[in-house]
Structures are given as structure tokens and as C-alpha cells.
Amino acid sequence: MQDIQTRLYHRLNWRIMSWIIVIYLMDSIDRTNLGFARAHISQDVGLTAAQFGFAAGVFFIGLVLFEIPVSLLASKVGAPKTFARIMVLWGVTSAATGFIHDRQSFYILRFLLGVFEAGFAPTCTYYLARWYPAERMSGVIFWHQLSLPLAGIMIGPVSGWLLTHFDQVGGLAGWRWMFVMEGLPSVLLGFIIVFVLPSTPQEAKWLSSQERTVIEGWSVRKNVRHGTFSAVVRDPAIYMLSLGFFALMAGMYMLNFWMPSLIPTIVWSDSRGTHRVKNVIHRMQTIL
User: Domain tally for the chain?
Assistant: First the structure.
């Protein structure tokens, strides 16, 4: 039995976890690439620091408003279809940011990006919990959350290269190309993901009947603390955890949105130093 479970873990890691890491990676890139374009957008569109900050923050208004409804709907629609819809819509919206010409359109697209990305992270956790046993979930969450610092390591060189090498190609500024070329892969992946991720173990043709039985046994949760949504809302621990997570995210996104434009004014006169310093920070996040 132990051998069967070991082989099953490896198969799930390859068939399920690898795709979740990839789509989480794309989500992280489309969320955080804004910081690299801040100076360029502000100059071309005519934004003050306060207006740029509002545009960065309005994303989270849309996210908060729709996070819970979309997450609850995912259990009925199915996680792969939810992933596909979210990725196509957020990819199109992110790419469309490359064509803004005033702050109103910038605000609208940032808000819509938050709306369309709502429910993504909770759906990932819900989906993985249907495939892995409870005692493995901490490690499972670690691996798909690892895509956050990995995205930070990747996005610096990629965004910097797009900003410099695609500037004025076809008459478009480099930052416009950056949003387009970093947004469209999410659209493509959204169309692919619905065909490669099964909604349930019963739909996975690559599983044997014995392996499906094992996974079904894992899905029977014991000592469940929250049996209903109302139980979650009444639990004080949820609010304490939310407060801690809020503090973590506030610091992280502050760095993502503002650090790329602040570093050159302090230590470097070009963008290469910005990408190097930010990559070092994301590597430290990965290690920690």
C-alpha cells in the first residue's frame, strides 16, 4: 500500500501540481509586473504618484468584492473551468493595459483585473485538497506558493528585456509591449488548462481504479473544524490569520509596486540595477 501511495504522489505531482505551479506563476507575473512600468506609465499617461498608487490599489477592491462568491461557485462549476475563465479574462485584461491612454481607462482595467482574478488562490487550495490527503496539504501549499518568489526572480529580467528591446517597436513604447507579451500567455494557458486538468479523480483517465479508491479515501476529512461557511465567519482565529496575512501582503505588494522605480533614484541610474536588486530579494524570499 505504501508503494502505491508513493507512486501516486509522484503521479499527482506531475499531472496536477506542476500545472498549478505554472498557472500560479502566470498569475503572479500579471499581478506584479506593474511596478516595472510605473515610471513609463506615469510619464506617458500623466499620472502622479498618488494616482498610480490608487490604480495599483483599486485592483484589490475588485478582488475583495468577488473573492468569496467566485470561490464558492468554483465547487459547483469545477476548478478547471474556473481556472480557464479566470486566466483568459485576466490575460486579456492585462494585455489590454498596454493600450491605455488616460488614467480612467487605467483605473477601470486595474479594477477589472482584480474582479477577474478573484477566487483564483482559494480555488487552487480547494482543488488540491481534492487530490491530496490532509497531512500532505501543508507541503502541497508550500510548493504552489513557491511560485510567488519564483515569479519575482523571473519577471525582473523578462520585464527589463521587454522594456528596453521592444521600445518603439511598431511605434509602441516598451511598457506597452511588456503588458501585451506577459498577458497573452495566460490566455493561451487558459484554453489549454481545461483539457489537461480533470475536475475530479473519477475523470482522470490516467488513474487506475485502485488509485481512485485511495484518493477517495484521502478526501474523507476527519476532525473538520469548519463544516459550513457560517462556522468560518464566526471563528475569531480566521480574523487573526487574516490580519497577519494582510500585513504580509501589504509589505510584499508595496515592494512589488514601488521598489523598481525607487531603487534607480537611490543607487543606479539605469534599470539593470533595479532588476538585480529585486531578484536578490526574491531569492531571499525563496530561501526563507
Answer: 1
Res. 286: pLDDT tops 50:
no
287 lies in a domain?
no
Domain harbouring 146, CATH code: 1.20.1250.20
Q: How far is CA 152 from CA 8, 61, 130, 145, 234, in A?
A: 31, 23, 29, 12, 36
Residue 203 parent element (H or E):
none
Whole-angstrom distance between the N-terminal and C-terminal Cα of the chain? Answer: 35
Q: How many CB atoms lie within 10 A of CB 151?
A: 23
Looking at the domain assignment, is residue 257 inside a domain? no
pTM of the predicted structure, to 2 decimals: 0.82
DSSP letter (8 states) at residue 169: B
Q: CB of 274 within 8 A of CB of 260?
A: yes
Structure confidence at residue 264 (pLDDT): 57
Supply the DSSP string of 86-105, one letter for each residue.
HHHHHHHHHHHGGG--SHHH
Question: What is d(CA 141, CA 219) in angstroms, rounded to the nearest whole number?
Answer: 16
Residue with cell 480566521: 238
What distance lies between CA 188 and its chain's CA centroid? Answer: 16
Identify whether the C-beta of residue 32 lies closer than 8 Å to the C-beta of residue 155. yes
Do 152 and 277 meet the contact criterion of CB atoms below 8 Å apart?
no
Q: What angle do CA 283, 91, 125 make, to 5 degrees?
A: 60
**Residue 7 lies in domain:** 2-214
d(CA 42, CA 103): 9
- Residues 92, 93, 94: CA angle, nearest 5 degrees: 95
C-alpha 285/C-alpha 146 separation (Å) is 9
What local confidence, expressed as pLDDT, does residue 288 receive? 47
Residues 260, 256: Cα–Cα separation, whole Å: 7
Has residue 14 been placed in a domain? yes
Instruction: Look at residue 119 and tell me if it is in a domain.
Output: yes
